Recover the amino acids of this structure.
């Protein structure tokens, strides 16, 4: 990935004000109607597309959309509903264990703290950040492959690890943009600043970007 010099504060302001103007209220492309459904969708999304996850949860949620109902399905029943997703067997095991812990320790509710979320099987820092941000409105930054790429390629928040990029983003992004920045960056990386062929000629934020191989 080409190195880009870090954006200046003025460039960062221009970058996010442009993304905000184009999409004032960004939302996740995962489909959910409760905090628990969001947690399930994010847990299932590792190494899978949002489209693929939504396809599976459209089958699962009408049948089981609470920890208690998923436990009642049993492992085989859960696997049969999510088998179209990659790594579905390990994800089903993690989800069953998570549901058990939610019932036993949290009264069937999704906890609001990072520590409690990360204690759930299959829930790492990135998943916890998504739930804290999307469900509870906390200004966290879940660094997936899209955010990692965009942050490094543009010079927004260069870093060698997802955690380094996460910390740099939290330090560099103006506070008023933080709650929505996670969505803007994912969508930008998914549809415009793509891995193999970034669409620089059609990019609304090409001006403040420091990608050194920009064309158009």
């Amino acid at each position: 990935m080409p190195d880009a010099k870090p954006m200046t504060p003025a460039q960062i302001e221009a970058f996010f004000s442009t993304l905000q103007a184009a999409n004032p209220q960004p939302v996740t492309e995962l489909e959910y109607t409760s905090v628990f459904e969001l947690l399930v969708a994010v847990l299932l999304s590792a190494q899978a597309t949002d489209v693929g996850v939504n396809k599976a949860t459209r089958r699962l949620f009408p049948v089981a959309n609470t920890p208690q109902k998923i436990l009642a399905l049993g492992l085989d029943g859960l696997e049969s509903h999510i088998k179209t997703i990659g790594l579905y067997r390990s994800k089903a095991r993690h989800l069953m264990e998570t549901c058990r812990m939610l019932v036993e320790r949290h009264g069937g509710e999704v906890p609001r703290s990072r520590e409690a979320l990360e204690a759930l099987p299959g829930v790492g820092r990135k998943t916890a950040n998504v739930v804290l941000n999307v469900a509870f409105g906390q200004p966290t930054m879940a660094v997936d492959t899209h955010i990692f790429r965009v942050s490094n390629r543009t010079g927004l928040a260069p870093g060698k690890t997802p955690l380094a990029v996460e910390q740099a983003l939290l330090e560099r992004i103006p506070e008023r943009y933080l709650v929505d920045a996670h969505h803007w960056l994912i969508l930008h990386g998914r549809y415009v600043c793509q891995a193999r062929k970034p669409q620089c000629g059609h990019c609304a934020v090409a001006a403040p970007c420091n990608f050194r191989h920009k064309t158009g």
